[in-house]
Amino acid sequence: MVSTASGPATRAGVEMLEKGGNAIDAAVAAAFCLGVSEPQASGLGGQSMALVHLHEEGRTFALDGSSRAPYVLSPQKNPQKPIKFGLRSSTVPSTPAALGYLHENYGRLSFEEVLAPSIRAARDGVEITALIHRMIKKEAEHLRKDPLAAKRYLDSRKRPLKEGDLLVQPELSALFSRLAEEGWRDFYTGGTGRKIAEDMKRRGGLLTNVDLEQIPIPVERDVLESTYRDVDIVTYPPPGAGRVLVQILNTLEGFDPQSLKADEPTGAVIQALAFRFALNYRQRMPMHPDHYSQSMTQMMVDKSYAEEITRRINEIYNQALSDTFVPPPTSGETTHLSVVDKDGNAVGITQSIELVFGSKTMADGLGFFYNNYMSAFEYKDRTHPYYLLPGGRPWSSVAPVLLMKRGRPLYLLGSPGSSRISTALAQVITRLVDQDETLAEAIAAPRFHSSDDGDLLIEADRFPKEVIDALKLSSFQLKRRGAYSFYLGCVQGVQMPRGWRGRFEGVADPRRDGTAEGPGVH
């Protein structure tokens, strides 16, 4: 079963399963194809993080596919504020390395087979959806500044491509064909890498051939494990944000399940406060995978720590939560896919080029957008674990999660949405576990997000008036979003069969253009 945020990507994954490939083949094919059909969210110029469960080995690991800051940087030369746009905002793309590594080590089919759907989709074209049209329209001013982007995403009169138009990407198709023939390392050490380095040098970017040749090989990391009620939670460690999801769930576990109904005032306020505490703490206590204290991570997933948060929520039920840190707002654009095969292998991949259309600048002759992950570092505080250093990894909010019981996977879930990832997933999980909703019901249900600075984004028209009033009385500043707002996450989920005669169920969040399909089910 394959669930992604885009129909062509879902079909790419299903095609691999029908060819006899495993979940890794399907996930990698779908992830590459998302860069074709959802170019505003991810692509070869970005980074990919994965949660992988290998059934036969009985092993689950997190694949840290972080990108890398350019080596030309130094604390003495660093800019004083984040670089958000243009070639200088790009870190070393790691998506080709992460997906290539995953396929090379755990896939079954050939690399040519895995890339074939992306080659076709880029060559023949993908249809512009209403969502992608809105994204192009929103970013048109930036896209007009890059002739390469304007050529592909604007018409002859420099207007955004319309819904129903065909997006044809011949340069990207040619690049995928080259990688299929030469292998993914060509992106870094071969002809493709040389083109990227030349492009950067010619147009004033920071990346060099040295940066690319130091291939950002992904790291297999131990997963973060916890429980929620009688369900085991397996999620992503730093540099991801699985610990935020775990802290939210640990806090909510301190309340009776019936008090957590989000369509009732009490449940909505409790959840909103739990979200705010967890996100506030993450901002104040950032953790880096290479030099964080293990005891600090354990504190965040420890049940007794959550009990203290639960007590404080009870104390301040109708009061404002005092802040000690207010970070800048985050509005990243990401995508997620979930894949499970008949053998029980499961792969969740969250990938991004950071903001919508990343750096807003395309690679000359190669057809992909460079990321703008240089905006995801700390620029002032040199004691911060994500202070901008040569070769450094950016901070990430990914939190793909596997729900298990007695060693058997139940659900594979993940979402895009920057800081909204953990809150979207927590709401789905509580509905599955506490309210006994179906996966489709839990994902489609009304959603909100409370940030650590007191703002609460909410699909207001989908909640009862008494819930809205209770949240206002609890000192949240409500910011209304439309029904099924893509800004509030896009959960892609797969439910495993219950028993020998059970069936896989895949669900794509209606907040985007996603689909869920399995072999023979179209």
From TrEMBL:
Pfam assignment, any one? G_glu_transpept
Spell out the Basic and acidic residues composition-biased ranges.
503-515
List keywords of the entry alphabetically.
Answer: Hydrolase, Transferase, Zymogen
| Record bears the keyword Cytoplasm | no
Q: Can you name one GO molecular function term for this protein?
A: transferase activity
Region described as Disordered: spans on this chain: 503-522
Q: Kindly give the PANTHER family that the UniProt entry links to this protein.
A: GLUTATHIONE HYDROLASE (PTHR43199), GLUTATHIONE HYDROLASE PROENZYME (PTHR43199:SF1)
As for family, the record states: Belongs to the gamma-glutamyltransferase family.
- What is the designated name of this protein? Gamma-glutamyltransferase
Source organism phylogeny: Bacteria, Bacillati, Bacillota, Bacilli, Bacillales
